[in-house]
Amino acid sequence: MEVAVWRGDETGGRYETFDVPAQDNQTILDVVTWIQQNSDATLTYRFACRVGMCGSCAMMVNGTPRWTCRTHVRKVLKGNRLQVAPLQNLPVIKDLAADMDPFFDKWVRVGGRHEPGKTRHDQIEAIPPDTPDRENADAGIECINCSVCYAACDTVRGNPDYLGPAALQRAWTIVNDEKHAGRQQILNTVAASDGCFNCHSMGNCTVHCPNGLDPMNAIAGLKRAVTKNRFKRGG
User: Fold this and answer.
1) CB 9 within 8 A of CB 100
2) Numbers of helices and strands, H then E, in the chain
3) Pick from 81, 98, 115: which residue ends a domain?
4) How would you list the strands of the sheet with 2-9, edge to edge?
5) Which of 9, 18, 45, 81 is least crowded, fewest Cβ atoms below 10 Å from its Cβ?
6) Are 169 and 78 contained in the same domain?
7) Are residues 118 and 224 in the same domain?
């Protein structure tokens, strides 16, 4: 098969074509690895677990963001051709390796880490798992920060300052966590000009999430929460 692979860095580049032998149960990551091991040892890409747990191997495959370790060639091959590129909406370090710093910077900006409201000396309160808040928090807890949703987001493409679906989904998780002490600050952050109201609800993030999460619904939840919060605080 003919595989066009992006070669270059943040200053520019081009697609380079390789002939790769087809194999049974072959994944896109297998194809990229074969090229690096057999055709061009300088090809740069990122991967770790190879079994769909870490998300670090995400790339653009025929224009769609995917985990390459779990994308079988036979499902995406078009006319015996493939096109593989680094994730969109992120700077390119080299070849297929995208710079994840902007993605994680936004995650940190929304207050993605847990801030406990009590100390180890306080009694641990029981949080029933079936409360609406807990169910909302649990709905996005399996996000592994692969950035597929970020690469699929047209709003990020048009507005690089937009926080993006993964960061906003994390914000929704934390806002619904009764044990989190900084929920008001998170609502203030996502209400800003680069926050949840930038989302156009196109749903690309939800469609492409490899873990089957629903960032669009989480962002809709944030919009409602921010609006209610404004009324409570008198605008």
Assistant:
1) no
2) 10, 7
3) 98
4) 12-19, 2-9, 81-85, 58-61, 64-67
5) 81
6) no
7) yes
**Closest C-alpha among 4, 145, 2 to residue 63:** 4
Total-model pTM = 0.92
What is the largest distance, in Å, between two alpha-carbon atoms of the chain? 65
- SS3 (DSSP) at 113: coil
Q: Which two tokens stand for residue 89?
A: 């909406």
Give the integer Cα–Cα distance in Å for 146 and 158: 20
Q: Which range marks the domain in which residue 178 is found?
A: 101-232
Same domain, 112 and 195: yes
pLDDT in tens, the chain (235 residues): 999 999 999 899 999 999 999 999 999 999 999 999 999 999 999 999 988 899 999 999 999 999 999 999 999 998 999 999 999 999 999 999 999 999 999 999 998 777 777 788 888 778 788 888 888 888 888 999 999 999 999 999 999 999 999 999 999 999 988 887 888 899 999 999 999 999 999 999 999 999 999 999 999 999 999 999 888 776 5
Helix (H, G, I), strand (E, B) or coil at 159: coil
* Claim to verify: residue 87 and residue 105 sit in the same structural domain: no
